[in-house]
Write a structure and sequence with these properties.
The structure holds 2 protein chains of 2 kinds.
Chain A lengths: L4 E3 L2 E4 L5 E6 L6 E7 L5 E8 L2 E4 L8 E4 L6 E5 L8 E8 L8 E2 L3 E5 L1
Parallel strand pairs in A: 2-11
Antiparallel strand pairs in A: 1-3, 3-8, 4-5, 4-9, 5-6, 7-8, 9-10, 9-11
Chain B lengths: L3 E4 L2 E5 L4 E7 L6 E7 L5 E8 L4 E4 L2 E6 L4 E6 L8 E8 L4 E3 L3 E6 L1
Parallel strand pairs in B: 2-11
Antiparallel strand pairs in B: 1-3, 3-8, 4-5, 4-9, 6-7, 7-8, 9-10, 9-11
Classes of the chains: A mainly beta, B mainly beta.
Amino acid sequence: NAGVMQNPRHLVRRRGQEARLRCSPMKGHSHVYWYRQLPEEGLKFMVYLQKENIIDESGMPKERFSAEFPKEGPSILRIQQVVRGDSAAYFCASIRDSSYNEQFFGPGTRLTVL
Amino acid sequence: KQEVTQIPAALSVPEGENLVLNCSFTDSAIYNLQWFRQDPGKGLTSLLLIQSSQREQTSGRLNASLDKSSGRSTLYIAASQPGDSATYLCAGSNTGKLIFGQGTTLQVKP
């Protein structure tokens, strides 16, 4: 019974490149949250998705960031034209459904922008 | 707007001590509160979830309480062990998304 899976675990990009972070929720879970942990800062909410639907993207930066959760396959957080300030740990969490909100986190993707 | 604060920021205790970690939140309309453990460079492990209708939850040596009226939650760790050394995060939820505190970094010395 695999937990939440994220890949890659570590990602290095040069400024201006694109970063794609993947999250596969726990089996039976259909909702995904993305959070970002900047160095020396706490975890901040970014976006909440259900399959094929963005529920809440109030924490997403207005530019360069996008997220999707297709009917088949993992959720993807995409960062276009990365800058050094995007260097952080990105975590996703999944829940079974909106009626029971215990969130289970993946191991995170640590993005380093050179 | 929900804000979550944790004190102390760091705590060092000798092995075997019982200890309490504190978490306070500003909006009493909290839906649930979740405690996590984070080891350096790792992800978050869910320890306990307290839903709004509950007052406390227990798992092994851990006990978490929730007092919505005072805006506080505590995590009690009994008979601490060196393996308990980690950062402990509390997070509250009003609408689903979690609002995290800054964490308490615990060191348990052998």
